[in-house]
């Protein structure tokens, strides 16, 4: 079963092909394709490095994020709280899409994402998140 950390549930919906390396981007696309092709596919919510981190150059030898592990963990907790998710429980991708549309508003998105470099360069926004989810 796939393992995903909470803030990646937003990243996956906003991914446009950019990433930390080619290996990161192709793995991210593979994960997204797996869930898009089978929306009932379940993953386990994990409180640490996940199937996306595993191909990221920012993951250090202690399996922590060199971009600021505490900051990332805080973001995960925030997203899990907003989407009412419980660590180690299993969820389907489509269920998460419904929860994002229902529970995440612009203010919550800003709290989670406004300090991220991808937000700062304009690749992620609440409007795009809603548009991508509504299109599926
Ligand atoms: S702004 Fe950063 S954390 Fe938020 S969805 Fe985009 S890449 Fe993920
Ligand atoms: S290691 Fe850090 S930067 Fe890389 S995917 Fe995981 S949380 Fe994101």
List the helices and strands and how they pair.
Layout (H helix, E strand, L loop, with lengths): L1 E3 L3 H7 L7 H16 L4 E4 L23 H14 L7 E3 H11 L2 H8 L3 H4 L5 H10 L1
Parallel strand pairs: 1-2
Antiparallel strand pairs: 2-3
The structure holds iron/sulfur cluster (2 copies).
Describe the structure.
The protein has 136 residues and is mainly α. It has one domain (2-135). 51% of the residues lie in helices and 7% in strands. It contains 7 helices and 3 strands; from the N terminus they run βααβαβαααα. It has helices at residues 8-14, 22-37, 69-82, 93-103, 106-113, 117-120, 126-135, and strands at residues 2-4, 42-45, 90-92. Strands 1-2-3 form a 3-stranded mixed beta sheet. Helix 3 (69-82) runs antiparallel to helix 5. The model has no long low-confidence stretch (mean pLDDT 95). The structure holds iron/sulfur cluster (2 copies). One iron/sulfur cluster binds next to loops.
């Amino acid at each position: 079963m796939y393992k995903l950390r909470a803030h990646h549930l937003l990243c996956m919906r906003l991914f446009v092909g950019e990433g930390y390396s080619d290996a990161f981007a192709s793995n991210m696309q593979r994960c997204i394709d797996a869930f898009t092709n089978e929306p009932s596919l379940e993953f386990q919510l994990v409180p640490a490095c996940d199937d996306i981190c595993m191909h990221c150059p920012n993951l250090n030898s202690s399996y922590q994020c060199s971009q600021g592990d505490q900051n990332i963990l805080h973001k995960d907790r925030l997203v899990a709280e907003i989407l009412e998710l419980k660590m180690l429980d299993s969820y389907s991708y489509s269920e998460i899409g419904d929860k994002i549309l229902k529970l995440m508003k612009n203010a919550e998105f800003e709290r989670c994402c406004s300090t991220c470099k991808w937000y700062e360069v304009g690749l992620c926004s609440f409007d795009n998140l809603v548009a991508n989810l509504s299109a599926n």
